[in-house]
User: Fold these one by one.
Assistant:
Number 1:
Amino acid sequence: MFTQNKNVSLLNHSAMNVQIAKCYLHLLPNGAHFAFMHNVLSCAQKDAKIIANDKLAPYLSRFNAAFAQENNHFGQSKKSAHTDKLNALDIARGQAYMAYKTIVKGYAKLPVPEVRMMSKRLLQHIKDYRISVRMQRDSKSGLMSNFIDGLEHDFAAEVAALRLERVVQSMKEENENYIATRVLRTEERMNKQARALFTARQQTDSAYRSFVEMVNAFAIVEGDGGYADFIAYMNTLISQYKKEFLTRSAASSSDDEEHLPDAGDGQGAETETVSGVEP
């Protein structure tokens, strides 16, 4: 099941009631958490003693079901359903703005003094806002909203005289559609993937702890000999994850200053290479 030093037994038989050590699961990054739970379940589902214990079956089943939910959320795409629509709307409002700008520049070249005078006022309005189709989108939304509001009020006479109402309305509609869709995506992100995965992780952790507590309890009641291989594997796995992730995370965390116990202390279990984790 795992590498063993020939000079060290997996279990110190002089110790009584060897237990699976505590693991600080909340400190694991998502990928490491997934790999850890996968390894634990794989080992448990192959262990003859665990499988033979009918009283452990519901705990293992709950653990497996919780992990399946974590797996489901972990694998889902984080791309919002609104992203493609936002991209299209941003292009559309940019095109409407550029069309307006081109038309006004065209009017400014006409040999009609009154038309040139009105178009120059509109050109100055364009220069004052300095809107670029490549600028940051939220900034663009705010600038375009204020820019269009000015066209509808301060420059309403010029817009009407040059018959620019339709292109101004097009700009307004595309910009408002973008802003409304942006709000929908923000609300979606508030409630969707990160929260779903976080909740799934918590459920997996709860099921894992219940399962481990029952294994530890049976090791006390029935004697740990029958569970020796599984307990030794678990403590080796936890020790490895502690060295690779938990010690480092705990050192950088101001919220959790508790000592992280070495899962291999007193167990005689030697560190192994586990799936998904390099030593």
Number 2:
Amino acid sequence: MILKVNILVSYAYLTESIIKELQTYEDQINLLIDSGAFTAWKQKKEITLNEYCDFMDSCPLKPMQFFTLDEIGNPKRTKDNYIELKSRGYNVLPIFTHNAELDDLEFYYQDTDFIGYGGIAGKRDKKFLQRFNKVLKQINNRQVHLLGVTNEKILKKFKPYSCDSSSWTSAGRYGTSAVYVGNGKMKLLNRLDCVKAPDKQVQQALKRLGFNVGELQNEANWHGANSVVNQVTCRGWVKFSLEAEAILNTRIFLVVVTAEEVKQIIEQFQYLKENKLCPKH
């Protein structure tokens, strides 16, 4: 089996530069394409069915699958969109939204063996978890993609077919570094945490990834799009995604919004392969 890295990109962010990078490395990537409904919703814009169909018709990329065009907070419209796209001949991946009737779950699984589960990113209150557990119990061993969820406890408990996250870009967004310490766990550090040597677990994790503590203690290495800190975080997330697939049979798709992010993922993936740091699949 050819080892590949998993990447998810939204239609809303598919610029020519991102497309070019994805095409360059297409033999190393498993690609999913999302409709961009969430981004459009945040920007108070609308993506029409015809627009999305035109995009799929003209898209030069060859993803594993396109997600359906969902509508945030509107399970009926999301379902109607899926039905219409299927009637037009598009084999899109349906999205069961968190507030939808459970009957919709069975409707989708009668039509396909793989669905997305959306409206669940970043939520952990008691009411949410009760519903979340109920849905996943009904899904049972059927294939599901958890949109925006990579919590290691959830992945170990339910072992979904796939999921996705943009958390790997945390170093660039929040000035922190996520060091992958193994077993699905990340340890967050900021620059002040590294003034003195971090604990032994972090030091050992950095060494396994090909870094050393001194690099994180150098302030200059915390700045720039391809800083050492960004490399630490990205390399750790790529390793986490490869381990999750090897151990749990769960595919973690890393979300990209720029061409530079595609390059970063590929560079770290290649480093892990060249230095024999990838788990056996």
Number 3:
Amino acid sequence: MVGALQARPSMWENSVLIFSADNGGPLETMTNYPLRGGKFSDFEGGIRSAAFVSGGYLPAAMRGSTLDGYAMLADWYVTICGLASVDPTDERAAAAGLPPVDGLDLWPMLSGANRTSPRTELPISSATLIVGDWKLMTGTQGYNTWSPPVGWPADYYCDDRNASAKLECGEGGCLFNVRLDPSERHDLATKNASVLEAMQKRLEAMRATVWHNCDPPSKCAYVDPNDYCANTHSQWGDAYGPYWRGGGLHPFSGNYSLDPTGRRLALSARVESSRLGELG
């Protein structure tokens, strides 16, 4: 694809190529060394992922540089909208009662207009929050293990203990400095009481704004993974949509549908994060 675009200079010069993984690797099949945890966990091994930006539209001065500002998947939508001079606001979604888009425009950082990410906090889940260098984890956290280096015996990756290993952070929470300690080996909760308290209050405030598929969540319909392909073809016009096979796709949005009673259902997704890597 890159070669085809570069063969048409006018297209390449107006292109931005974005690569971003969605989450860390599953511990049953791969390593996230030296990070703790993996896919399905709130540990850095589950949420810290690789990302890079390229393309002829990227300013020459930024090519080959490395950025460590925060970004999450929702930010790419808003960033692309900005590049296309499109308002990311979905008025019809707002009128239907859906919450606004959570993304932020990363282009000022990516283009070199400034070196600071607009994102200073990452709401990972209802139990975990990152603000600046600090990360608060509460409750019971699964996949509490560190990946080995690449090349360890294959039987490690199929070890069920990876999923069952738990870290009990309780309601008070565990506190990590993920900039200085990205492997999350040192719980600093007892040494940073003021930071812990501020993080607890912020997490509690954010919990009140969480959007659920349905209320209560236990009533959410389940779709067998074997139905994904069939649903993609029959309900969503050969495009991925909500993993739900009720009343079909709502006409205005690919992440919104109605059940037979008219109750609104929005596709929920874990927030995955990354520190931006090399720009090329």
Number 4:
Amino acid sequence: MKMYFLSTGFGHVAKGLFVQGAGMKSVQFPILSVLIERANDLVLFDTGIGTRIEEEMRPPIYWGNLFFHRCVMRTRFDPQHDALVHQLSRLSFQPSDVKNVIISHLHWDHAGGMRDFPHAHYFVGRKEWDFASRLTNRALFKNAFIKEQFCGAGLDIELIEADPRTPFKNFPASYDLFGDGSMVLVDLPGHSPGLMGMYLTMPSGRKFFFSADTFYFPEGLEQRMPKSKLMQSLVSEGPESEASINRVYDLMKSDPQLEIVGSHDYRLPGRYELAANFYE
């Protein structure tokens, strides 16, 4: 098994927007997806920003997302270079090699590439799907969704739920993706109602936990510093977010060998290198 970090572009924000009280220094951060190469297939954790982002944000209903993309996150993204479908070819893979995709949550910078992998099987949390798919009009961009990325696209989507009969670590319920303990999903509600994180155990014994947007920057976890009030408002973050951060913090303290990676950790590249580098 090999694991790759890929970034569909980079954003730039004042650090204090993503970490309460952290000041106005501008910080560059990635928009991460994780590619896992198994014996017979490829698995993605999130699809990042996709090739259709400009047309998807064109309707007036999504101008709020467009403003966030260009003026808040100040994202640098080239659809013909940075989208995952184009990055895979540079790793000598084809989009059709991706058989399974886990979507941590349906925000546009995580689910944006779903339609770029039309033959994949998708795992989406039922709670997340039920919430996002029922929204209309202004409520969509207030919650950072672009409905056309995931609804009505003819995708093979399996709705999943963490099972309380299988607690995992300090989580009361889990979903074992392949039934072998290698990839286990757990609930982390707050940033989005149905956000799920993934615990990856590699054959080498190396362990990763991908927490998506439970926190943005490492201070959000290590110092348990919340996002700014403005940021929480911009993405309609719920009150459960504090409990989810605390749960990940407790997980981190219980296992110093566990490597926890958020989707917008500004230490990448650096802490880890991006593909074509890989980890085993």
